[in-house]
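haha ok so turns out i had the wrong file open the whole time. this is the CORRECT one, sorry everyone. sequence first:
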Amino acid sequence: MTLDRNTDPILETQGLCKFFPVKSRGRKATLKAVEDVNLKIHPGKTLGLVGESGSGKSTIAFTMVLLHKPTSGTILYENEAIGGLKGRALTKFREHVQMVFQDPYSSLDPRQKLLTIIERPLKIHTDLKRGPRRERVIEILRQVGLDTGQLYRYPHEFSGGQRQRIAVARALAVNPSLIVCDEPVSALDVSVQAQILNLFKKLQNDLGLAYLFVSHELNVVRHISHEVAVIYMGRIVEHAPTEDLFTDPRHPYTRALLASMPGQERAKEGVRLVGEITSPIDPPQGCRLASRCPVKDGACAEKTPELFEVSPGHFTACAKSV
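then structure:
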């Protein structure tokens, strides 16, 4: 997949930070979930965001759609800052940017029928009357491959894959330009995962959708993404076109992730990480991977590394690995 970087991004973060106040050992502390994140999502393209559980992936996703308020930094939608949106302006933004959550079992109201679930965004964001709303619901169901004769069934009457199709249909209802997908296939069987991924790709081709696709499953991200950002403990450590990242990883953390993929024989000396993940609560100065990194030196623990470009569109935050 190729990416045209000459087009303006549909959504962009600049220096995005999201911190949470917590208590640690009986005292007030700060959990730095996301720190200084710069990302761009281009129209009609998919940005994959990968990292281990607890790395900050979902926090970025939730903050991008303003379910979390950013601590600092800027979020731009079509070049306009949106971090302070409230009321009708926020509702209007969410007409353009929708979200598909990880668990189709909990993201759908079990007390509502299929028709009500998909119709609700149309009631909030449009002036369509009952008849046209129903027609739109039926159109969307066909787009996502669901039987239009099931309008009055409840979520528990559908399989996991069907429920995720319902969640996708709900997101599509108001014709968004961007869908933020937070681990949308991780709760599904492998065979069903492939079906949902192919659905995402078909919808992108048919409707020109952009996606932020959050996942810890590298094969999934490689299949669907045009470019990939790798996050470790709240900071982006590598960002590249998809095939560049998978064939020529530059950061030690990215190399270790790829070495852990099923069927890979790449877990050699130089890519193994040792020790435990550093706590994101008041993290130490310097590179957050330093305590586990096989190529670290003394400077790594002193200064936080910045991303720099090693080839066109390929950025890494580790000069030691270049």
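The radius of gyration is 21 Å.
again sry for the mixup
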